[in-house]
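In response to a reviewer's request, we include the raw inputs and outputs for one of the modeled complexes. The two entities were modeled together in a single run.
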Amino acid sequence: MQFSQKETDQALILQMTGEIVMDGVAEIKADLERLAGESPQPALVVDLAGVTFMDSSGVGLLIGLRRICLERGKAMSVGNPSPSIKKLLDMLRLTDFFAVHTTAAPA
Amino acid sequence: MRLCLVDDSETFLTYLESLLRAAGHADITTWDTAEAFLGSLDRGCPLPDLVLMDLIMPGMGGLAATRRIKADPALADVPVIMLTVSDDDGNLAAAFEAGAMDFIRKPPRRLELLSRVDSALRLKQAIDERKAREREIKAEKEYIAAILEYSHDGIAVVGPDGRFTFVSPGMERVFGLPADTYATADRWLDVAFPDADARRDLHESLSPRPAPGHVWQRLYPFADKNGQRRACQIHFSTMPHGDLILNIQDVTLFEKQKEDLLKKHSRHQKDLDAAAEIQQSLLPRRFSMSDSLKFAWEFMPCEDIGGDIFNVFPLGPNHVGLYMLDVSGHGVASSLVAHSVYNFMHYQRSTLVDRSEGRIEVVAPEVVLARLDDEFPFAKFSKFFTIFYMALDLRTGTARYCNAGHPAPLCITPAGGITPLPTRGTIIGLSGFAPFPAGELTLAPGDKLLVVSDGLADSCDAGGGCFGEAGVRAVIARHAAAPVADLVAALRRVSREFCRDAPPRDDVSVLGVEFLRPKA
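The model returned the following structure tokens for the whole complex.
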């Protein structure tokens, strides 16, 4: 799993690629949480367009990022999940929780 | 090549020089006294490859000059041909004794002179080449000796007769034993290897000689000069003539680290095994329940300890409760959270049954899940979990359930109808993000309910193909009318066959209940 970051006036966009699974999460969790906490923008978008697979550790990672954003008064959303990840988020009834949307940046 | 001519007769020198130059010798210097010639060498002029020197000259003379040349190690290799008018045997003997390699009678005959000069130069060239090669060989030898000297490993060679033919200084560094220890291989084994097995093994390795080029290695415990137990690794290599080379490394520290690591690993593994055992001991006893209900389950843990747990238990006199939960991730942390939820969901606790004011009232599943959500916020353990919980009234077969993100359980009629329970809310851990909707159903006698963790459909074969929901449904369809124990056992069997030897990536839990008849 890898990620790159993109910034607009309104949002920090974290573009994830590869598989989000337990071992990978342990490696980059701290980096992502630091970025989410320190970014000056009022919103964080986690773009999953490049993610092929995500397990429950990935869901945990997203919940953790959302919590950090909420504590700092930021909005957090998840963008462009693949159909299988969308299905996982639906099954866990997390689509609203993560404000899942299908454009790269919020309007 | 360089020629020097030394003669007190200028006429003769000129004649000699022109003769030699005509024959193609270009590098020629001439001197009229031996002193002048030797002086030039002392001043560092290039050494000649051949000197033609008059025997009788004023001053030092040819004999004395030749003696001086031969006495000086720096000049001794320069060949001298003596020129003489005298064919007195005494003079010739003296010339050879002084170190001259040949003599030529004056006046020289041209052909003879040139042949003798050529042959002397050829000889000189051959000698020069041999000496250069000798210097190279010597340098190479010294280099190899230095490698053996400074190599930290011990290097030794044992001949076919069992005696050491070479022992490098590194052996002293490894074993610290006196030189006489290496008289024979057997003596060395007796002194350095107190361990009988190691000694026997080494003795066997040193005795027969396998084919040249054969290389093998092994670890041996040994004792250093202070009797300290250490470990060495020996590489054996056989040489063409039956010698055996031993490259010996002290690996004591490495072995110690390896041993510590293994101990640590085995301790952790024991911990994990114990934790997995405890987790499994919490699972319900099989097949035991009332006349109204039968149940069966299968649990296939992943290699790493996982976060699945489930239970079936009476809730007061007329109800049965059951749940299955799956904590995100696996490993000890997930297992601890599962254990913690297990305690929270223990049926004697007020979480599930309200015993206040003398009543015994089953708490509604949506309330139970809200309590769990309260108790296990994501922030507390950085874990969330999915859970299906249901309370079943044995008198009527009516059930109320709540599902927090767990795969939908399946209601199965004996005729083969399969209905997923539709109501489902979000996972536990989001701190009241959304209420948990409750669903209801009524089981008719013979109906079964099957709850599985996502590990079952996600079970993969070695090639990565998934068992899938279709795989699960196919098994159910074949066993819809069979007793619940048969259905659950079939799910285990078929999914295991599908996975072959691939170990489960996640815990796989299967829990089935069958409603037999309403409780009287």
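As requested, we also summarize the result in words. Residues 2-91 of chain A form a domain with the Transcription Regulator spoIIAA fold (CATH 3.30.750.24). Chain A has one domain: 2-91.
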